[in-house]
Structure formats: C-alpha cells, structure tokens
Amino acid sequence: MPIPKERTDVENKLLILYLVNRMELSMSRAQITDFIIANDFMGHFVLGETLADMVEQDLLEIDQENAQDVSTTRYTITDEGLKTLEMFNNHLSRPVRNVINLHIEEHRGKIKRDFESSVNYFPNVENNEFQVKCGVYEDKRVVLELSLSVDTREQAKLIQANWRTGASTIYQKIIEAISTAPEPEES
Q1: What are 43-77's pLDDT values in tens digits?
Q2: I want to staple 136 with a disulfide (CB 3.0 to 4.6 A). Which of 16, 115, 143, 186 is the partner?
Q3: Contacts for 28-34 with beta carbons within 8 Å, 24 or more apart?
Q4: Using only C-alpha atoms, what is the Rg of the chain?
Q5: Are strands 129-138 and 117-124 parallel, antiparallel or unpaired?
Q6: 59-82: buried (b, 16+ CB within 10 Å) or exposed (e) per residue?
C-alpha cells in the first residue's frame, strides 16, 4: 500500500511524535530531517514549520546546545505530546508506522551513539579564541566533559570532527592516561 504524500498538519505532527517517541531518545533536528526527507513524508519548509508549531504547542521540547549548528538542536517528546499521540495514534496509517519502526530498528544504535557524545564550539569574543565543549554521556549521566580554548575556527572544527568520529577511543585514551600510575623517575 503506497504511503500518501499529502498529509494534514495533524498527520505530520503525529508522524513526528511517533518517530521521536519510538526512538526513546531525543533526536537532533538533522536526524529528524534526514528521515522525513529520505522517506518523502514532507518538504523541508513544512517540516521546519511543523517542528516550530510542535514546540510552541508543548508537544516537543527543544534543547539547543549550540545556536550556530542546527544539528545540535534536539527534540524530546513532552507529556502533552505523549497524551496527544495516545489519543490520536490510530490516525497514523500502518504503512507509515511500519516505515518508522523499520528506520528505528536500523538506526537506533547510531542515534544513541550520537546522543551519548556531543561536541560544539563557539567563538569567545572577549579574547578572539574558540571554546570547544566535548562530552560523553550514559543514560543522561555525565561520564566526561571537556572544555578547551583554541586559537582558530579550523582547530575547533578539527577537534569537533575528531570527537564525532572517535569520542569513545579518545575517552579511553584519556582514562588510561590519567589513571595509570606514573613510572618512578630514575635518579
């Protein structure tokens, strides 16, 4: 059964609520956008308006770690969003739910890994440096947070890229370096 391309505003909101709820994690705007656009559920402009409406209507709450980077805007379903989803869940077609469920099965691990580490940078106008904040989290518990000052945007971007691709390896190296007993100095 083909998935209808034209949806009402309510159906679009239910689709997003179902996706975020089933993921059981907050999702970045980029993750939601990638899913919605890849499955041709709605256009980019409609998605942006729908997400803004859902935040305004307290169906989703937003956490924006870095205002300069849309990919770090994360959405979590609210209690009001859960109530709405429960009341109108039957308005979301089975084919749409199946597509979402399949996506979650295939991508939850990656999204969870993305959620468990974060990195952002922003300019420090007082001293013309860039502040880079890196973190590793487990079940909403802080495992490691680093805050670094670097001289250039290029350095900040390099740290960001390295952290995104290797946070767990970097974390392990840091733990090894600071938890290993120092070798006795020879006299």
Answers
A1: 889 999 999 999 999 999 887 554 444 446 778 88
A2: 143
A3: 28/71, 28/72, 28/73, 28/74, 28/75, 28/114, 29/70, 29/71, 29/73, 29/74, 29/75, 30/70, 30/71, 31/111, 31/114, 32/75
A4: 20
A5: antiparallel
A6: bbbeeebbeebebbbbbebbeebe
Please report where in the chains the tokens 């940078």 appear, as a residue: 121
Question: Cβ atoms within 10 A of the Cβ of 171, count?
Answer: 18
CA dist., res. 120 & res. 148, Å (int): 11
Among 4-13, 74-83, 90-99, 139-148, the range scoring the smallest mean pLDDT is 4-13
Q: In this structure, are residues 124 and 149 in contact, taking their beta carbons and an 8 Å threshold? A: yes
Q: Quote the tokens at residue 117.
A: 């580490």
The single residue listed with the structure tokens 């979301």 is 92
Predicted pLDDT at 115: 60
Neighbouring C-alpha atoms within 13 Å toward the C-beta of 50: 22
pLDDT bucket at 1, cuts 50 / 70 / 90: very low
Task: Using the predicted structure, report yes or no on whether residue 140 has a pLDDT greater than 70.
Answer: no
Tell the residue number behind the tokens 């990919």, with chain if given: 71
Q: Which residue has the tokens 């993305």?
A: 114
Q: What is the pTM of this model?
A: 0.60
In the chain, domain spans? 9-112, 116-179
Determine the Cα–Cα distance for residues 169 and 154; give it in Å rounded to an integer: 22
Written out in words, the top-level CATH class of the domain with range 9-112 is: mainly alpha
